[in-house]
Specification:
About 30% of the residues lie in helices and about 20% in strands. By secondary structure, the chain is an alpha/beta fold. Strand 7, helix 7 and strand 8 form a beta-alpha-beta unit.
């Protein structure tokens, strides 16, 4: 009997030690989903709708879509915008979308006016301060002009919100060189939008300097390392400065190049890796998938990543 009691006590002690070693998950821990750059082709429509169905049953707090809701040669029609919005609004979770280049910047390829298409996107997707989805949440929005003379329009697609000590900010930064290099009118639009983006990011960084904020997430469409022109270097400099000021984990989320990637590409002036800034690039055409990002305030790294590849819709030659 004594032997049995000793064994039971030993087993209980081992269980208690094991329980302490595993560090129970913080009750404020949660996950969110990231997707983008799909569907581009008819072959991707089926997997894309399967992806949305997966999101409905996933244990995530919200979904971030980093843009490109059609291909770069797709139809930039009001009907297409309405169709995508209806799809996003049908998702069970709050759904936060930031525009990509395919749905406005690149529309000039088919004879559309890019700036007019951006205005149309704003009317359809960003008419109020709520997210999309069946269970929308209230978001802060940059829905006011920047200066007293209002020479630049509002950028209502820029949003921020917080969850579990993490601040999230979206910036209106599409691919295709950020709508620059084609003519003076579009260059002026890009300059105004960049001014707005930097002001919005500064607000988010300033608000994140308090002790209650454990990390910052910055989400946008463009892959700033893809183009040959250094058009995105001012943005990268702002992100590096944000990480220096905060001394907290910063997660930089984007799409555009379509390859699921988690790495640390940010460098300081000496070429040293800035380990506090993690880059996440989500899947994109022909890869149809999403990334589950875990958030645990007790984890020194805060973020963890789990890819969900739904399909590879290979294009016909």
């Amino acid at each position: 009997m004594k032997v049995e009691l000793a064994r039971a006590a030993g087993a209980l002690l081992l269980a208690l030690v094991a329980g302490c070693a595993t560090h129970p998950r913080n009750p404020d821990a949660y996950s969110f989903a990231v997707m983008g750059d799909t569907p581009y082709t008819p072959a991707e429509e089926g997997p894309y709708h399967l992806l949305l169905q997966q999101l409905d049953t996933a244990n995530v707090a919200f979904v971030i879509h980093v843009g490109d809701i059609i291909s770069g040669s797709g139809a930039c029609t009001d009907a297409l915008y309405a169709k995508r919005k209806a799809e996003f609004d049908a998702v069970a979770h709050p759904f936060i979308y930031t525009p990509g280049d395919n749905e406005w910047t690149d529309c000039h390829r088919a004879g559309w006016d890019s700036i007019e298409r951006l205005a149309a996107l704003r009317k359809v997707f960003f008419a109020d301060r709520k997210s999309l989805g069946r269970n929308p949440i209230e978001l802060a929005a940059q829905d006011h002009c920047l200066a007293p003379d209002c020479h630049c329009p509002a950028v209502p697609e820029n949003r921020f919100w917080t969850r579990g000590g993490v601040r999230f900010v979206t910036l209106s930064v599409p691919g295709s060189n950020n709508n620059t290099g084609r003519n003076a009118v579009n260059d002026a639009e890009a300059a105004c939008r960049q001014e707005a983006n930097f002001a919005w990011l500064e607000q988010a960084v300033h608000a994140s300097e308090n002790s209650q904020t454990v990390a910052l997430v910055i989400a946008l469409q463009a892959d700033p390392w893809a183009p040959k022109e250094p058009v995105y270097e001012p943005l990268l400099a702002r992100v590096r400065d944000a990480a220096r000021r905060l001394q907290k984990p910063v997660l930089f989320v984007h799409g555009d190049s379509h390859i699921y990637t988690v790495d640390t590409p940010f460098k300081d002036a000496m070429g040293n890796t800035l380990a506090r800034i993690t880059r996440l690039e989500t899947y994109g055409s022909p890869f149809v998938g999403w990334v589950e990002v875990g958030v645990d305030p007790d984890d020194p790294e805060v973020f963890s990543f789990k890819p969900h590849l739904v399909s590879v819709a290979l294009r016909k030659k």
